[in-house]
Structure formats: C-alpha cells, structure tokens
Amino acid sequence: MTSLTFLGATGQVTGSCYLLETGSKRILLDCGLFQGSKETEKQNAAAFPFDPAGIDAVVLSHSHLDHCGRLPKLLKDGFKGAVFLTEASFPLLELMLMDAAHLQLRDTEWENKRRERAGKSLLEPLYSVADVEALLTLRKPVAYGVETPLFPGLSVSFHEAGHILGSSIVRLRIQDNDKTKTLVFSGDLGNAHSPLLRDPSVLTEADVLLLESTYGDRDHKPLENTLQELREALTEAANTGGNVIIPAFAVGRTQDLIYWLGKLQRQGGVPQQQIYLDSPMAISASNIYAENVHLFNIDDPEFTKVAPGGWQAWLTGLIYSKTAEESMAVNRITGGAIIIAGSGMCTGGRIRHHLKYNLWRHNAHIIIAGFQAEGTLGRAIVDGKKSRLKILGAEVNVAAKVHTLGALSAHADQSQLLQWAHHFKAPNPRLYLVHGEKAATLSLQTCFKRTGWEAHIPCVGEKIII
What we know:
By secondary structure, the chain is of the alpha/beta class. The protein has 2 domains: 2-218 and 410-465, Metallo-beta-lactamase, Chain A, CATH 3.60.15.10; 223-408, Rossmann fold (3-Layer(aba) Sandwich), CATH 3.40.50.10890. It is built from 15 helices and 22 strands. The chain has a 7-stranded mixed β-sheet with strand order 6-5-4-3-2-1-22, with no helix packed on it. Helix 4 (89-118) runs antiparallel to helix 5 and helix 4 runs antiparallel to helix 8 (280-290).
C-alpha cells in the first residue's frame, strides 16, 4: 500500500512538505520553512510529525526556502538519506541555506541579548552552518527529464516548472502490487510571462496530482499594463525626487526585474542613473543564473549580445552593494535611486532598513512585485490598512505610494493553473490543491468544479491512499 500525508503548504502558502510511504520506504516531497506571522513561524521549531531518521530520501522541487528551508533541521534531527534535486538547484540550495543559517544565528543572538536582559531563557537557532554543510553532502543532482531510480519500485523525474532557475514539476512512478501509479507534484508553476525561463512542461498522465494554488483566486494584470505602471512609477519618482524601493526575492524575482529594467532602459523608460542591488545573496544568485543561460528561453538579440558581460552590462547604472557599509551608504540616499533588496516579503534582510528610511517619504515609491504571505510586513504594506508600521523597533508613517505589479509574479495565475492542469488526459487524476491561502484554494476549487473536475482541499495531517 502507498500513502501520502499532507504536512505543510496545506491551507497556507509556506512550509511545503508531503510524506510518501510505499512499501518499507518513506520519502519527503520538499521540507520547507513556514513563513509569515510569528505564530506561523513557531511551527519551524516544532518536532517533525515523523521520525527524521526513518526518512529514506527527500525529493526537492526547488530551492526557495518555503520548500527547502527545514532540510538542515531534518538532518540535525536524524535524517541521513539522499536529497534529489535538479542540476541548477544544486548550487542554489547551498546559497539559500547558508544565508538562512547565518540570518538565524544573527537573529538569535539579537533576541538572546534582549532575553538575557529580561532574565528569560535563551533560544537556539533552528540549525547551524555545520548542519547546512552536512546536509549539502547529501545532494544528488538529476537532469531534467531523466527517469531516475530512487529505490526498487520507485523512480523520479524532474520537469521544467518555469518558476525559478532549477524549479521542477516532480513526477514519481510507484510500483505497487504489480500496478504502476503516477504521482505528479506541480511544485511552484511559473508565470507564462516570465522573461527568462521556459514555460512549465506539459504533463498528460497521472493518478494523483498535487497542484499549487498561490494565485488560485485571480489572474495577473496584463504584462504591458504592468510594465506601463512600472514606467510611470519610475518617472513620477524621478520628477518628485524620491527613491524607488523594490522588495525582491533573491532568486528569480531579482533577475526578472533586472531584465525588465534593462528592457525599459533601452526604451527610455528608466530615468534613474543609480540602480542598487543591495543583497549579497541576490548578487550571488544572479551569477549562478549567468552560468546557466542554457536554461533560459530568450530570443532577445539585445540581451543575448550582452549576456556574456553579465547583468551590469545589460542594465546601465546597476551597482552591486555587498558589504554592510555599502548598504548603510545606500540608506543615506534621499532620492533619485532605485533600490532592490531582500527579503521579498519584507520579513528580514536589508529591505527593512530601506523601508524604515523611505516609507514615510511622500515622494517615495514602493513597488511590490511578488506574493506577500499573511502576517508579513510586505502584506501589511500591500493591504494599506495601517497608517503606521513598526519596522526595526521604530514607528514609521506610511506615506509612500505603493504599487503592486502582479504580472511580474513568478507564479502562474488562475487561468494558467487551469490551463496547465487540463492537459492531463481523462480520466482526470485525483486532484489536491496545496500551497495556497484559503480564499485562493476555494476559488480554484470552484473553477475546477465548473469543468466537472472535483478538486480536494486537504487538511494538515490528512493521509490519502494512492
């Protein structure tokens, strides 16, 4: 008997984790961090609802932290198996997890100083750099489209998801009682308007389908409308002398933004002379992207001509801000610059400093170019329900103009999700909607129901038989 248990990204976007049990083997699909409110993030420190030492392998869809961020904790708690992932995810996983470990250490040290003064018990980081280093030795890279045995009777293949570099749709083939069952996990499906990566691969056969639903309740704005809004925001900021602040995920969103800014710049749509990429991780990720241009889907002759020269050759005025001192110098710029920094949901990193110094300025512009989970600072800015926000211990007035550019999202929208899923041949697979907030999954469920396809919304801990 083969079963699947839903353990994360169930009723919410983050914490992707699913347990497959077949025969004597136990395999995890993803092992991601829970991100959002403090209450949500408390789940990260909780014990796993299974014995990590009993997990034989992990199959990783991609290297965003909400899919991979608890892997070092899994190892710390006893996991000794292999981690199967795509070739391009191999270097990105190291980048993401090392950064996460350093941030956790810093944040824990900061919190413990406060706790020590208050006479409270001290905290430990979720995992250490040593845990990450040990986890990285377990990586097993697999090329796209190659059927790879995990164990007797169980194989995996990865297919292009178009979300970030190395992202994949996971297909598992399971031999069970002389029958072969196919489980397909969409991972995070990319937006068809992504300027760099290929569109998600089309799969047509499955017995069980796990489908993400991040944007299951809406379609993105038309791309040209979004690019025009970006042009207008840049022009308005230049005319009024304000800065443009862009929170961006280091992997994926940053590289797309640099591409579009370079494209607009060639059309005369970027008046700013200084464009700061204030994120060491995003700079490193951009270098990894540049080493994998063979995975791009670009026929833009202007881009391919300058690609060997790197991102700074494509976007004139792009300045890499690596050190803390360089970042603090950017904080002192009162206007005329574009500042791209992480984290993408404003939950940490250098973006909080830039928001602290700019959100209260009437001539500043905040450009939100990605999904903001419930409970995050980015979501509070998008919702606009508060006139003041607490950032780095300070009350900050919200006076800047906020723009939400949905078409730049790296996730498929409702129509794209439906279109991709309907490539599966009849009879329809058993469909489970994951990786979405309640409103999004309910809306997408209704859309499928209209086409005669019953979509299930699982609960945390729910187990199904495949």
